[in-house]
Amino acid sequence: MQALLLIDLQESFCREEGSTAPELAREVQARGTLDNARQCLDAARGRGDLVVFVHLAFDAEHRNRTNRTYRFDEHERAQRYMAGSAESTIVSEVAPAADELVLDKGSVGPFASTILDAVLHAADVEQLAICGVATHLAVESAARDASDLGYQVSVIRDACAAPAELHDHSLNKVLPAFAEIITSSDFTATS
Fold first, then answer.
1. How many whole angstroms separate alpha carbon 149 and alpha carbon 184?
2. List of residues 6+ apart from 77 with CB closer than 8 A
3. Angle at 8 between CA 6 and CA 13, to 5 degrees
4. What's the CA gap between 149 and 179, in Å, rounded?
5. Sign of the CA dihedral running 94, 97, 101, 107
6. Which residues, 6+ apart, have CB-to-CB distance to 146 below 8 Å?
7. Could you tell me where the DSSP H helices lie in the chain?
8. Maximum CA pair distance of the chain?
9. Running DSSP on this structure, what letter comes out for residue 87?
């Protein structure tokens, strides 16, 4: 079975207004990331692929926080990215359907602080296609971990975004060691 993993496509990262990462939000808009992710989401739903959303969203006590870096200390102090907050809400362009799984993560990558691996194994997923933001952070972490866990990984180039230099470096230099790099057209063509 194949799964589509959508990572951190949330208001605080994808919308310039009120964004905690305005440079990233500008890249999301300039690259058409949300439109491409939506096309992939529609194709995955049409094929009956497993669809899983993972977003940065802390519980009230930060129990799901596994990342202990200074940056995450700042998130906790400022009470950023709290579950249910506007900034952690997944953008409307790729809103989850009522029956689709949404996992709250407290780490950069989606595996460390969630039950994602267990969910994928329970569904007999062998192939994992990934889209989201930021390419050089959460997407790259997901691809590395998924590859090490035994999944065949694809990263959907035009359904990801990051500041240009970091995005390009990740997709052209780092990610090919862990994943096949494809386009949204490649992903939707298998519908």
1. 24
2. none
3. 135
4. 13
5. positive
6. 111, 128, 130, 153, 178, 179
7. 11-14, 22-31, 33-47, 70-78, 116-122, 140-148, 164-169, 184-189
8. 45
9. G
162-180 as b/e: b if 16+ CB within 10 A: bbeebbebbbeebbeebbe
Residue with tokens 């496509």: 9
Instruction: Say if pTM beats, i.e. exceeds, 0.85.
Output: yes
Contact 27, 137 (CB under 8 A): no
- Burial label for 35, CB within 10 Å (0-12, 13-18, 19+), is middle
Cis, bond preceding 134 (omega within 30 deg of 0): yes
Residue 178's identity, in one-letter code, is F
Asked whether the beta carbons of 159 and 9 are under 8 A apart, the reply is no
- Chain segment 138-190, per-residue pLDDT in tens: 999 999 999 999 999 999 999 999 999 999 999 999 999 999 999 999 999 97
Structural tokens at position 180? 């096949």
| Confidence (pLDDT) at 191 | 54
